[in-house]
Amino acid sequence: MDHSVTFLAIATIAGFVLATVFLLVDQWPRLERVSFRLPGLLLAVAALIGQGALLYQLGFQSEPAALNLSVLNSLAAVFGLASAITVISAFRERLDGIAVVLLPVTALTVFLTVFVPESNVPIRTGEFALDAHILISLSAYALLTLAALQGVMLLIQHQALHGHNPAGWVRRLPPMESVEQLMFRFIVIGFLLLTMALITGFLFLENILAQHLVHKTVLSVIAWVVFAVLLVGRHIAGWRGRTAVQWTLAGFILMGLAYFGTKIVLEWILNLQ
Length: 273
What we know:
- Helix content is 76%, strand content 2%.
- The chain is built from 9 helices and 2 strands; from the N terminus they run ααβααβααααα.
- The chain has helices at 3-25, 37-59, 71-90, 96-115, 128-163, 168-171, 176-204, 214-237, 241-269; strands spanning 66-68, 122-124.
- Helix 2 runs parallel beside helix 4.
- It is flat, with a radius of gyration of 19 Å.
- The two termini are 23 Å apart.
């Protein structure tokens, strides 16, 4: 392995870890006079830039116009996108609760991508339709990942409220109504991108219903239906709280099975590329 890649990976992982520590320390009630939030966010931005450089080096093959979309590379790309959206949004909104979960997970994906050997899965790029489909699909999953994390946060707040003894860090989270609104914001944008990903897939991918892709396609369509029902239920019946979170997590799990479940079976179990 190139020493520059190793050094960049270690620096990137350290940046994510330090950013997480800064954001956690900033939430300590005893340190309210000293803010570690801005340094934490700036460290996260630097780490994300490092991760982007790593993915560029590891994702593109030596052959022209080929992209390595292995399981670990794809996982790192999804969590990198989710972290980037969170960190950029955190400069305007209070998303520290999501950041302290996402950043260490993103650091772990960087470690796995760089230091765990994995077979290459080159995909020929250079075609606008295929490039657009890949980017839209990854962005959709990243946004729906954020929606799922907001849903888990909402469940924790709901449980703490009914327990009448919320922990200190729970009290520092945004109001439940704000968390729910943000969750649905991520769902709406993610749903639109998922719709575009399915449309571009059916229009431009000749083998979308091939035997090795049919499970991914079917699960993605079912996930689309789940999110569509959730949005209709929200609009017509005012679904919120536990009901909304349950539908959100169900759709997220289906998306995970559609993409990563299928890739793991094909690449790690069946050795198909």
